[in-house]
Amino acid sequence: MSLLVLPTLTAWTSSRLTAILTAKTQADFTTAFDALFARNVNVTFNGKNLSREQYHAQLLSQSSAAAGEEGASVSVQGQLEVQGDQGQISGLVGVFYTSLVDSKFLVMAAPAESKVVSSFNAIIQATEPRPQPINPRIHGYFDPRRIVTVNQIATDQALHFAVPTKSFNSSSPDVTTKSNPGPFGGRFGPGPVHLNPIETNAHPETFPGDGEFGAPPVLIPGETIGDESHTKRQA
């Protein structure tokens, strides 16, 4: 007769924790909860000590079995275990997971969604006695392991999304559109455009009398410049 090999501590914890968070009904949630946590479990959640009933309500609010929730998915990003003296029958487990919960209620024609990110650390021991009498017709295995101490840190946030503007038809009733001003614009159209002289190929304006070396000297009647003289005419 071969001995039964139990699932590893991390596989056992992850699968049963997933069963809790993805339960469809509160009855299924309670069954999965009792299969993971001992009757006298010690709970620390976000630094606060909770009773078993309070922790039951806390996890229920984060699961798909909560009122108004449609479904949930769980993704385990990391897990670690340290076996006890008896191998897989007891030990320490750490699990880091993310769960997404879809609501039955719609926001802008899409289901509302919340995201839970959590670090879950537990001490596991064999606490459950084997049920008697054993029914030979029932095939399966008995797992006496339960979590006796859990320390969990979790954040819960609602996910926001933006509806594309193309989903609205501007010609539909009760839909108004607002045009944005252009890069130079205001309420009454674009303002003046200032161009660089290089762009307009502009040249400096030349005034009469200007030469290559500047304007010629001013001639005053009665003064002599070079060999020429200018006298004032007599009236």
From TrEMBL:
Residues 195-235 are annotated as: Disordered. This is NTF2 domain-containing protein. It comes from Rhizopogon vesiculosus.
